[in-house]
Specification:
The protein has 14 helices and 15 strands. With 404 residues, it is α/β, with parallel strands linked by helices. The protein is globular, with a radius of gyration of 21 Å. Its EC number is 2.6.1.11.
Amino acid sequence: MTIENKVERGLFDEVMVPCYNPMEMIPVKGEGARVWDQEGKEYIDFAGGIAVSCLGHCHPAMVNALTEQGNKLWHLSNVMTNEPALRLAKKLTEVSFAEKVFFANSGAEANEAALKLARRYAADQFGPEKSEIIAFKQGFHGRTFFTVTVGGQAAYSDGFGPKPGDVTHLPYNDVDALREHISDRTCAIMMEPLQGEGGIIAPTDEFIQTVRELCDKYNALLIFDEVQTGNGRTGHFYAYQGLGVTPDILSTAKSLGGGFPIGAMLTTTELAQHLKVGTHGSTYGGNPLACAVAEAVVDVVSQPETLAGVAEREALFREGLAKLNDKYQIFAEVRGKGLLLGAALNDEWQGRARDVLVAAGKEGLMVLVAGANVVRFTPSLVITKEEIQEGLSRLDKALATLTK
């Protein structure tokens, strides 16, 4: 690449809508859990594109699937079906409770489909007054107007005019508040089985069991947003499988395509019949390219050794973070499950999660935050043990610069 053609970070400010504030460096190449920027500097990737790159960068299974399908067929529209979509749908029903699948392009779209199905089912079965959706404070379900309203963070949904109605937000893990509020008007409860953006908050056993019981009692559907927790992230293919509770509808995206945009809503045959021809759709949903890549991802991630490896890697992370904490006294606790982990900052470090992210970047380590007080780690599920050690040692250097 000649120097005249170099794409500068300044170009972002010139041509892009300013709703993001990206880092100064621009990555140009990735392999496994490593990334290189324009200057050739190497980074260890503990961010995984926000829990997306579940097999790391340019995994051979994904590259092969994309290349093969790219030479066959890219797009058809939903006037026809295609082989990769059918194979992928079949595999998703085999690794989950689901019997029926709807394909979209993102988590927000999968959640939009889930919410529309819940409302349509309630209207068909019980009438129009059964329309309330209960969701939880600090929840996150996407950026479309419906999903951002159901998400429990007003900062993301305020300022865009009148919101979709009949959405109630309750505190996560508050059994009494839920018991008190739910009624026959409730059509669905939507929740993350482990809150991601909200700070990596796990549900208590009592809470998750009560949610399911109350949904059954009041004929409400339970929607699990597994956009971040799904596809092996917690060590189960889907997080619900480790909680002893099965939802009625499940959304999945992020790591489903390992980096190629795809989302899916999974449900039962009984519920699916309420989305008749013409009631919902997506131009690109279920396109052959995305489905071929996702099929390769599901094949690798659903292997017992891949899922078992997630727990091993979680243990290495927890052990390494505990050692760093002995040294720097920075974390109050490490939350989460599998490779969706959040190191919550202690009282002295409140509000400084982004400082840790920036300092780590300077040392060649990519991490994330979940709010101002939690450093989030969502690396590849197949990151090598050496890469974990190397990344932790770079985090050590980063924390040293902050504690000076």
